[in-house]
Amino acid sequence: MSPDLDRQLCEKYPKIFRDRNGTTQETCMAWGFAHGDGWFNIIDTLCRSIQQHADQKRKREPFAGLDDEEFDELHQPIAAQVKEKFGGLRFYISNGDDVVYGMISLAENLSYRTCEECGAPGTPRKGAWIRTLCVTCDRRNKDPNVTC
Ligand SMILES: [Zn+2]
Fold it and tell me: Which of the 8 DSSP states describes residue 134?
């Protein structure tokens, strides 16, 4: 993903992307968002939903007794790796619960219907490897002279 969109996500969701600037020995997030710009809205919506869930959970029993640091250590979801594989988004996280895994599943399923390049409706297409693309990006992928 482009550096500008990468930075936007890290600034909006600093707790989820806490490890973005870790080393490659520490975390796969060191590689950044290993997919195209077209999935930005999916990731943005997913992280907004995850952080809202975590912030609500923080206030509820039995978590309300924990201070912020203790809660974050045990229950704040933290992205471990975000990438494309076989045409779909893969979003790996630590400290997830069933609600968070359900959100991730929805986001991953949406990625198979969303062009990884431009965000338009898309479908998985076979080429040298499988990628989820719209008609135009698929054509451009096969012939760089095609324009939108
Ligand atoms: Zn496209």
Answer: -
